[in-house]
Specification:
binds 3-methoxybenzoic acid, six-stranded mixed beta sheet, alpha+beta, Cytochrome p450, 13 strands
């Protein structure tokens, strides 16, 4: 394969952001990337990259020049076949993007989700109560990943979508594979390939009308097809997006917020004193940890970014995680600070593709944080966090915590 050659004058980097080392600890690389320039050429992959807030934000909000329909991974749909039918949301531009987006945005709007608020709040309270029942002398040591950050979303989300019980264990590995597959065909894609066709087949079956509980979110996508908002061919692919993008992301975001409060005890105290800060805590943790680290766009025509021209068809890697800690935009960017307004972070993206499921994620997170704040006086690390490597996600394999009961 011949890779594009960078134009002279462009800053170059021979680092591999998809190596185990940089995926495990991306922050030092992000700083080098931001300092190298507005746009940097990654020689290993023959792609352009940006790590500064201003350029990442500008590209995300310019869907005409930074298109998604050629794929948002490193491989270019203009030249290669995608490994699965492209997403109608993530991998589409207007006008094709419009109807699926508008339809799903309505289904996942705060207003439509209101019915789930009391259900998820009660589920969070029960979840925390059951967990804390194992405390000894008012203290509980846990790995928060299996017991909270995976367990709670898996307790509420698949039921809300209306999935059958059997086979739900496919959800996490399927999502993990999709997020790996946006990156290069490296050791992570290789390892994840085992079983992916079974995961994908199960996911595809759950998108069928007859499989879905008639009261759930999946059924409301089919109802949109019945109204003519979307076509019957579009409905299953939109449900596939919900199942792909709605599980791993939320889980790793919940790990991010628990990791953040465990390492900032005064911020946990502030949240306990003012539980309405739960929403801000979640967004500040998304800013700080950026569970979705990167997405690509493709230059539509020769695209000028500051002093650089990215030629038509070239891939541009946007480092959301780097933009979210750019000191050119954020004060003390590496601190978890509930005193700041984190809005404008690009952890959910920005512009027409900004996360359509963000209200679902916020609802899960605030229900859980409020339930914990009511019962847990202090949270501290009980061992080092262990990362789960993924080409796109900043993910957590293990998060040992010590909880002191209120
Ligand atoms: C989709 C999809 C998959 C992965 C991520 C995502 C963050 C969307 O299938 O639409 O958005």
């Amino acid at each position: 394969m011949t890779l594009p050659i960078a134009p002279p004058s462009l800053p170059l980097s021979d680092e591999d952001p998809f190596s185990a080392e940089l995926l495990d600890e991306p922050a030092p690389f992000h700083e080098r990337l931001r300092d190298a320039g507005e746009v940097v050429f990654l020689e290993r992959y023959g792609v352009y990259a940006m790590g500064r807030y201003a350029t990442v934000h500008a590209a995300l909000t310019d869907w005409q020049q930074f298109i998604s329909s050629a794929g948002v991974g490193v491989s270019n749909f203009r030249k290669e076949q995608p490994w699965r039918p492209p997403s109608l949301l993530l991998e589409a531009d207007p006008p094709a993007h419009n109807a699926p987006r508008a339809s799903l945005a309505k289904i996942l709007s705060p207003r439509s989700l209101r019915a789930y608020v009391p259900i998820w709040e009660a589920a969070a309270e029960r979840h925390v109560e059951e967990l804390l029942a194992d405390a000894v002398d008012g203290v509980l040591e846990i790995d928060a990943v299996p017991t909270i950050t995976e367990a709670f979303p898996l307790r509420v989300f698949p039921d809300a979508v209306g999935l059958e019980r059997d086979g739900r264990e496919h959800l996490l590995p399927y999502g993990d594979f999709v997020f790996n597959a946006f990156g290069p065909h490296n050791f992570l894609v290789e390892a994840g390939s085992v079983g992916v066709s079974e995961h994908a087949a199960w996911i595809a079956r759950q998108c069928e009308r007859d499989r879905l509980d008639p009261t759930g979110i999946g059924a409301s996508v089919w109802a949109a097809a019945d109204r003519g908002d979307i076509t019957e061919q579009q409905a299953p692919l939109i449900i596939r997006s919900i199942l792909t993008a709605g599980v791993d992301t939320t889980i790793h975001a919940l790990s991010a917020v628990l990791h953040a409060v465990a390492n900032a005890p005064n911020q946990w105290a502030a949240l306990r004193a003012e539980p309405s800060l739960a929403r801000r805590a979640f967004d500040e943790a998304i800013r700080l940890e950026s569970p979705v680290q990167t997405f690509f766009r493709t230059a539509n025509g020769d695209v000028r970014i500051g002093g650089t021209v990215v030629p038509d068809g070239q891939k541009i890697l946007m480092f959301l995680g780097s933009a979210n800690r750019d000191p050119r935009h954020w004060d003390h960017p590496d601190d978890f600070d509930l005193g700041r307004d984190p809005s404008g972070h690009v952890g959910f993206g920005m512009g027409i593709h900004q996360c359509v499921g963000q209200h679902v994620a916020r609802l899960e997170a605030t229900a859980l944080l409020k339930a914990l704040a009511a019962r847990v006086r202090a949270i501290e690390p009980a061992g080092p966090i262990r990362r789960h490597l993924n080409n796109t996600l900043h993910a957590t394999a293990s998060l040992p915590l010590r909880l002191a009961l209120a």
